[in-house]
Amino acid sequence: MTDQAPVPYAGPVRVLSGVQPSGALHLGNYLGALVKFARLQHEMDTFIFVADMHAITVWQDPALLADQTREIAAAYLASGLDPAKATIFPQSAVREHAELAWIFNCVARLGWLDRMTQFKEKSGKHKERSSVGLYTYPVLQAADILVYKATHVPVGEDQKQHLELTRDIAGKFNHDFDRPGFFPLPDPLIQGPGARIMSLRDGTAKMSKSDPSDNSRINLTDDADAIAQKIRKAKTDPEPLPENLEDLAARPEADNLVGIYGALAEMTKAQVIAEFGGKGFGTFKPALADLAVAKLGPVGEAMRRFLGDRAEIDRILAAGAEKAREAAAPTVAEVREIVGFWKG
Ligand code: TYM
After folding, report:
1. The CATH number of domain 14-196+309-339, selected from 3.30.450.20, 3.40.50.620, 1.10.3720.10, 3.40.50.300
2. What pLDDT is stored for residue 1 in this prediction?
3. Is residue 26 within 6 Å of ligand 1 at its C-beta?
4. Best mutation site among 72, 89, 158 for ligand 1, i.e. most ligand atoms within 8 A of its Cβ?
């Protein structure tokens, strides 16, 4: 038997990504995802949603969830997403995501999901007490992407495995139903210095919404004082900054702060080292704090401004949902036909 090369997808390029409304957004979300969204909207047709269906895989207070969704929308707008260019919407407002996710649940294999490291991390020691949704979460993610036949998915490094699963599901669907090239195999857009921002308290742990220590992360809503203080308190070693990248890689906390500086200043780590190598943290940290305040201060301010008019956010989300439904419905209609569902 000879393996045939998969037929390439011939449809248009399209960007899709999303963020969960499950806690305050932090610098990692901003650099790993939001700034990329704002940039890509000028290059491709862009769909950015608030992943509220993903958020409820762990308990969310129903009285707060809709407002958390608005907060993420405000963060999108504050970081430069323009509703005239990008389609911004809540995931749950487009039912096609759930419908395609069910079909994909029947395409994905248990063995594939068993390998997902994020489920293992999130479920911890008591996996039998996790929701079934948390387990099939990456299947819903594949549906989010493929219901729009998105070709490019800007995400942080931690989503890499979920994107690989998405490609596996697309490939298996195309193969099983003998529809070569029906779904694209989407490309993750991960590269860049902001792809993996680490905790300010531990250079080996990811900066995360769920870290119990607020000093581990810079929140988008932190004011200038909080940002400066968290950087001042960030864990470091007593040595001056190294003069080359090899030495930097061996020092996770220093590496992280240099990476953050580079991502905020749009410089490579090598360029940051060229400027600060040999200097102590007493010099570098205040420079980083000034930069972070200059870059993030206006984002936090804009977020608060947008949140001052929730009715306007709701209008933007409703209009986005309408456009998203129009884009998603034809895919699901075709998939229903391909799968062989009754249509009367
Ligand atoms: P979420 O809400 O956990 O994170 C949103 C985005 O932020 C990125 N990110 C980071 N980037 C760099 N450094 C960090 N420390 C850091 N922490 C988080 C994430 O990689 C992500 O891009 N499953 C997704 C949401 C989702 C999705 C999708 C994304 C649902 N469906 C379809 C893309 C396409 C998630 O939980 O992201």
Report:
1. 3.40.50.620
2. 45
3. no
4. 158
